[in-house]
């Protein structure tokens, strides 16, 4: 494969653009636009595959910050619900009235 110094460079395209000014002004200003080559115009190549692995990596990094409070909240609510059911049952009311 021969080395070509201009093979990886972007081509410059000259396009005229009219300068805004007084009405009837026909002066043009030359602007340089950079164009990428055809082999560089595939920005979404591998995006779906990379997104799966990136999402997995980020989830594994955050799971220890999210899971313990959720587990604690689940068991706390489960305990409170069972205690509430017992306190509102016949045995619970009788136990609270005895002192």
Distance between the termini: 96 Å
Order of helices and strands: EEHH
Helical coverage, percent range: 40-55%
Overall mean confidence score, pLDDT: 78
Give the structural class: alpha+beta
The percent range for strand residues is 15-25%
E-strand count: 2
How many alpha or pi helices?
A: 2
Using the CA coordinates, give the radius of gyration.
35 Å
Largest sheet: 2 strands, antiparallel
Cα shape = rod-shaped
Strand order of the largest sheet: 1-2
Q: Stretches where pLDDT falls below 50 for ≥5 residues?
A: none
Explain this structure to me?
- With 99 residues, the chain is α+β, with helices and mostly antiparallel strands.
- It has helices at 47-87, 90-97; strands spanning 11-18, 28-35.
- A two-stranded antiparallel ribbon has the order 1-2.
- The radius of gyration is 35 Å and the shape is rod-shaped.
- It starts with 10 loop residues before the first strand and ends with a helix.
- The model has no long low-confidence stretch (mean pLDDT 78).
Search tags:
alpha+beta; 99 residues; 16% strand; single chain; 49% helix; rod-shaped; 2 strands
Q: How would you sum up this structure in a few lines?
A:
The chain is α+β, with helices and mostly antiparallel strands and 99 residues long. The protein has two helices and two strands.
């Amino acid at each position: 494969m021969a080395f070509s110094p201009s093979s990886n460079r972007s081509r410059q395209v000259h396009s005229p653009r009219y300068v805004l000014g007084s009405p009837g002004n026909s002066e043009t200003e030359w602007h340089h636009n950079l164009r990428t080559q055809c082999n560089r115009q595939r920005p979404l190549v591998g995006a779906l595959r990379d997104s799966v692995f990136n999402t997995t990596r980020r989830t594994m990094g955050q799971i220890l910050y999210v899971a313990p409070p959720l587990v604690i909240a689940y068991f706390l609510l489960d305990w409170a619900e069972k205690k509430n059911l017992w306190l509102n049952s016949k045995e619970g009311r009788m136990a609270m009235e005895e002192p």
